[in-house]
Amino acid sequence: MLPAEAFTITQTTDTAGNPAQPLWTVGMTQDDVGGSFMTNWLLPASPSDPYGSLTQDLSASATYTLSAFTSSYMDLTISLTNTTILSTLTNANIMSFGFGVDPNATGVSFLNQGGVFDDVRLNSTPNFTGGFKNIDICVYAANNCSGGNVNQGLFAGATDTFSLRIFGDFSTGTTSLGGSSATLSDFPIKFQTSADSYQLAGSGHVEEVPEPLTILGTGLALAFGAGLKKEYDKRKKSVEA
Fold first, then answer.
1. For residues 138 and 108, is the Cβ–Cβ distance under 8 A?
2. Residues 159 and 231 in one domain
3. Which domain of life is it from (predicted)?
4. β 58-69/36-43 pair status
């Protein structure tokens, strides 16, 4: 039986980051095992940059696949891509990113480390830089969640993939979902660039990723429909003639 893929994706009324951006949450249950969702980050160039120093867009995207969910832990495989296209900046590297977990995470470990992101901490700092609160999980590439040697970060155009096991008491679930469930939130990310440092929220484009079979089915349906229309048009012309 295919997974239901019913992630509950919600935009909140809160903001955080530098500059401030809307925050999103993603709720999940056992039914979502095997499913994936995406977060996207975007900071357009000035004048949206309050410091006036950003001369080009910064962007990134990540796909999260839930491979296990129990009352005591969840397994996530995360593929993070720095989609920034360098033009006026000499570098724009991703140094760290994370998310909040509700109910609170009690532990985290790598199932598979990434080539760039090879350190993870639980509540490494009370608040992620940029004004983010209650960020349970932080994955980083250099010294810590605050940054470090920019050359150790994820370069523009590069992708890194790794898997985490996150522990917690998920048996009672969240207030909104109930039962055995959990909610990930805020999705902060830190860019270090040749202009300045920026902490962005994964906001505006949090979405589910369709299953391959769903994509295939949609493609077949479109092709079938196009074939029927072509046959109909052919018969119509024949009758009119």
1. no
2. no
3. Bacteria
4. antiparallel
- Three-state SS at 232: helix
Residues 150-173 pLDDT 10s? 999 999 999 999 999 999 999 988
Could you tell me if 198 and 92 lie in one domain? Answer: yes
Q: Which regions of the chain are under pLDDT 70? A: 1-5, 47-52, 124-127, 175, 178, 203-207, 211-241
Integer Cα distance of 126 and 116 in angstroms: 24
Q: C-alpha angle 21/27/30, rounded to 5°?
A: 155
**CB atoms near residue 126 (< 10 Å):** 8
What is the DSSP track for 29-46? EGGGTT-EEEEEEEEPST
What is the three-class DSSP state of 167?
A: strand
Query: How many structural domains are present in the chain?
Result: 2
What pLDDT score was predicted for residue 160?
98
Do 37 and 209 form a contact (C-beta atoms < 8 A)? yes
- Taking the C-alpha atoms of residue 74 and residue 89, their distance in angstroms, rounded to an integer, is 38
pLDDT for 123 equals: 76
- Do 117 and 22 reside in the same domain of the chain? yes
Buried/exposed code over 153-189 (b: 16+ C-beta within 10 A; e: otherwise):
bbbbebbbbbbbebbbebeebbeeeeebbbbbbbbbb
First-to-final CA distance of the chain: 50
Answering whether pTM is above 0.70, one says yes
DSSP string of 55-86, one letter each residue: -S-EEEEEEEEEEEE-SSEEEEEEEEE-----
Q: For residue 207, how far is the Cα from the chain centroid? A: 9
